[in-house]
Amino acid sequence: MDSKTVRLTMAQALVRYLCAQKTRIDGETVPLFAGVFGIFGHGNVTCLAEALERVQDQLPTWRGQNEQSMALAAIGYAKSKKRRQIMIATSSVGPGATNMVTAAGVAHANRLPVLLISGDTYVNRLPDPVLQQVEHFGDPTLTVNDSFKAVTRYWDRIVHPAQIIQSLPQAIATMLDPADCGPAFIGLPQDTQELAYDYPEEFFEEKIWTIPRPRPSVDQVAEAVEILKSAKNPLIISGGGVRYSGAEEAVAAFAKKRGIPMAESIAGKGAVCHDHPVYVGAMGIEGSEAARKLSESADVIVAIGTRMQDFTTGSWTTFPKDAKFININAARFDSLKHRATPVVGDALECIIELDAALGAWTAPAARMVQAQAWYKEWNELLDEGQAPTNQAVPSYAQVIAVVNKVARPDDVLITAAGGLPGETIKNWRCKSPHTFDCEFGFSCMGYEIAGAWGHAMAMGGKGTPIVMLGDGSYMMMNSDIHSSVIAGHKMIVVVCDNGGFGVINRLQTGMGGAGFNNLLKDSRVLDPTNVRHVDFVKHAEAMGAYARQCDSLADLEAAMEWAQTTDATTVICINSDAYTWTPGGADWYVGVPEVSPRASVNEARKGQEEFRKKQRHGV
């Protein structure tokens, strides 16, 4: 063998390369890839697992219960690390791979890095069709792994051992690029994994990656400055990109210095604490009344690091049609939305340069005075809705208030699809920055517990992930309670049982429809008199967790205080009201039948038609 090469199988070389990749976090050099989530089967057990077993001290492998939830845990880890470290999720051929497609969609929609490595069928096709192979009669090259193309930023299938020399650096560069960030997928055909190749030794040299901070065009900054200087009623919308850039303090300081109220997108929530003097709450459909009033009266909106999803924009109805947008974003695609003046670059660099170019300009003082008055009114409304009452079943807002009260400053609240995103976005009061994670970019039921497992790994015992989810999400994906127990990563899980899919029932009935197939009481069963509800306490205990049922808000507070003292994942269950929701926020564009025999549907259609007249158009 040549002294400048080393003979390895493709799988061995891939693992060795991944181990050699480093990154710097707060001045410390750490592995870029912090670990692997793996369920082994044919396609990744005989070759890839053989390589991973050798490097457990460098690249630990964690065993999950479901391929989708493993990849969701990797996403939670990436969020907690602000995209600076990456986890890997690997699966076998067939259903193991397709289980990860949903998680890839979550990472893609939320612009988050995760490396997905899946087994694949044989390049030589000699044993075809193999177990779990899906055959396409007109295209023998097509496998289930092609389904990842729609939900990944980088996709490759390795059909020769030498290809990883070019492919792996490109996959990593994509995942670390602020403008192009998202999941990368590498397909590994079984016969390619086993092949040995003489790899150049320099391929395995340690490499320290840094996340680029692209600076904006001078011309774009100048144009943005002229627009902002003309503003009488400006508004900042701080998005997830602000947090990933590490620009939270800079943006908040800019807002305070310039006298501009600061709202947040859902992904951006947690950049500042709830009581920050410039903060006015979240924007949009699940936002605060203060943010809604400020957006409806805004003449210039500075959107920083947000893709302006419909839940942020109220389906583009919450802004005056003649309002001007300045979109600061690392991604050119996002910066150009809705006729905005683009400022393409890293959020921190852009804010620094925009601030330097603004000179002594500040917004009219009355704007911030009005913002703080509206925000005070909003907090008074929250206080009223969170106050205990003598109703038999507490509302989400009341439950959230108790959990929030007991949460420590370093604890991280994690939630996802269902009713709790809107209720926590409104009611959860962040005590420290970067302590809130609501997966609402893809609105993926089942993210909550899996994502919290990833957060727990990343947090390393500094604070505890607190999961809030409904009974619907719990039933959809809960097995990582067991994963967290056996792995030793504690979380606190609060299950709010409202008897089914409460928030989608709200939408269904709110648009004039009958309650149908959402709440358990409205679902088809053979014997309606004998619907047996899940005992979530026994279920959680069966997976090795501590658990407790609560019958009141006082019980809940005591249970939360107890949960803070336990040494493993702890599940707390409480019944909650399916019909009481925190008011406020913008309206939403939804499809409502143009004609219906139901009068309530026709009435809802009229309301949608009136609402849509307020929409801005993106041309």
TrEMBL record:
Residues 221-352 form the Thiamine pyrophosphate enzyme central domain. Keywords: Hydrolase, Thiamine pyrophosphate. Residues 600-619 are annotated as: Disordered. The keyword RNA-binding does not apply. The keyword Hydrolase applies. NCBIfam families: myo_inos_iolD. This is 3D-(3,5/4)-trihydroxycyclohexane-1,2-dione hydrolase. It comes from Pseudoprimorskyibacter insulae. The lineage of its organism: Bacteria, Pseudomonadati, Pseudomonadota, Alphaproteobacteria, Rhodobacterales.
